Amino acid sequence: MEKELTAFQKFMNTAIEFLTNYSFQVVGAIVVLIVGHFVGKWVYRIVFALCERKKLDITLSKFLSSCAKMGVLAFAILIALGKFGITIAPFIAAIGAAAFGASMALQGPLSNYGAGLSIILGRPFVVGDTIVVTGQTGVVQEVTLSCTILTDEDGVRITIPNKNIVGEIIHNSFKYKIVENSVGISYDDDPEHAIRVVQKVLEGFPEVAQAPKPQVGLQEFGDSSINIGCRYWIPTTKHFQTLCAINLALHKALLAAKITMPFPQREVRIVSGTAPVK
Q: Which of 43, 50, 57, 118 has the CB geometry, 3.0–4.6 Å to 126, for a possible disulfide?
């Protein structure tokens, strides 16, 4: 029993000595961390508002704001450690050694972060752009350090690791997607009249972008029709429904204008007869 009492007495003496010597340091460190937390959030809002005023894209704005916040928090942690007389040199050496070991073990994940930093700073695309990369097409919803998130017209969420994007060919059509279509008319019809009809239909759809303007013209001379080609840009998020609506409107407008839309025909002749007798 005496051993337990002696051990408890030593523990109490140590606790009292610690509180006597370091109570103010502990309270001061806690206060510094709390203040650093709120100052970091305030700095984040200030930097983010400044980036918005400069009209930077949302991804770069969040990245710069987060860097500023982390810098404030790191400074607060250093001050808190200083309250206990702890030097940071050994910690820096330990962090460097740990980072080297982690980089060797986690080359795949870390390469995503390096590629993400390259995308954020290089800005080959931003949130809201329509891109085609690694065989995937979609609207950019978010760019993080590890991956880029796309969504297609069906609402499917596509997550692409950033290391698979950097170094690849990227097609960026911003918020629009191009439609290349053609409609055949009879050789007896006036192609200029058909071109005006197609242009009028496209002008009736506010979804069709006016910059760049739709392109309509005589595309080629087919076997059974003159093909009127048209190229126009519509929002990626409404691509399929707008395309179908325009095709139906084109069909109705050409019929109303009494323009014939021929279809391929083949003429088959059957020759009958008897072979000559030798």
A: 57
